[in-house]
Amino acid sequence: MSQYFSIHPDNPQQRLVCQVADIVRRGGVVVYPTDSVYALGCHIGDKQALERIRTIRRVDKNHNFTLLCRDLSELASYARVDNRVFRVLKANTPGPFTFILPASSEVPKRLMHPKRKTVGIRVPDSAIAQALLNELGEPMMTVTLIMPGDEYPLTDPYDIRQSIETQVDAIIDGGYCGLEPTTVVDMTGDQPEMRRQGMGDFAQI
């Protein structure tokens, strides 16, 4: 049975954030809100937790996870970014975008695209997500909380609790989230290329 935390979306209670971070460090899988949708997250180095998330989502080993980072300086440790790309990232983070970038050697191989050696990286504009990342002091592995067979993510913390409380270790209730996931932008070519239209406005890239 998971632990349930009601955390204020604008002023997260640090005491509760610390408890969730401890669960992540111990190998737990957590549900948390972002600036777009609810997501599943776990420790960056925990292979077992990653497999648990794959089981919940019923996705195979080829499904791409995202690294959730605090800011651009942390992002730069996990991706190779030139000046052109950096300007785009600076103008659009934090926000509802996931950027596909060339992975650095710091990225666990299981998170890379096996052929392209790329990684999806995101900086959320969410007080709860940022508080959790700050407490952890490192990125989280993450994926959108869409249940098998569903077209849209779960948005209501009550529904999330009813659906998967026996499969995760913590659920953060930060209020309702939206239905649109992030806009995915591939930054590995000469020009940005949209891979998925979501909440972010690609026209501003």
Topology:
Blueprint: E1 3-6, H1 14-25, E2 30-33, E3 38-43, H2 47-57, E4 66-68, H3 72-75, H4 83-92, E5 97-102, E6 118-122, H5 127-136, E7 140-144, H6 157-164, E8 170-173, E9 183-186, E10 193-196
Parallel strand pairs: 1-8, 2-8, 4-6, 5-9
Antiparallel strand pairs: 2-3, 3-7, 4-7, 5-6, 9-10
Helix pairs in contact: 1-5
Shape-level CATH architecture: Alpha-Beta Complex
How far apart the termini lie comes to 42 Å
What string, H for helix and E for strand, traces the elements in order? EHEEHEHHEEHEHEEE
For the sheet with most strands, the description reads: 10 strands, mixed
Shape: globular
The main sheet orders its strands as: 1-8-2-3-7-4-6-5-9-10
**Oligomerization status of the protein chains:** single chain
Describe this structure in words.
The protein starts with a strand and ends in a 9-residue tail after the last strand. Strand 2 (30-33) and strand 3 (38-43) form a beta hairpin. Strands 1-8-2-3-7-4-6-5-9-10 form a ten-stranded mixed beta sheet, with helices on both faces. The chain has six helices and ten strands. It has a single domain, classed as DHBP synthase, CATH 3.90.870.10. It is an alpha/beta fold and 205 residues long. The model has no long low-confidence stretch (mean pLDDT 93). It is globular. Helix 1 (14-25) crosses helix 5.
Please outline what is shown here.
With 205 residues, the chain is α/β, with parallel strands linked by helices. The protein is built from six helices and ten strands. The chain has one domain (3-200): DHBP synthase (Alpha-Beta Complex), CATH 3.90.870.10.
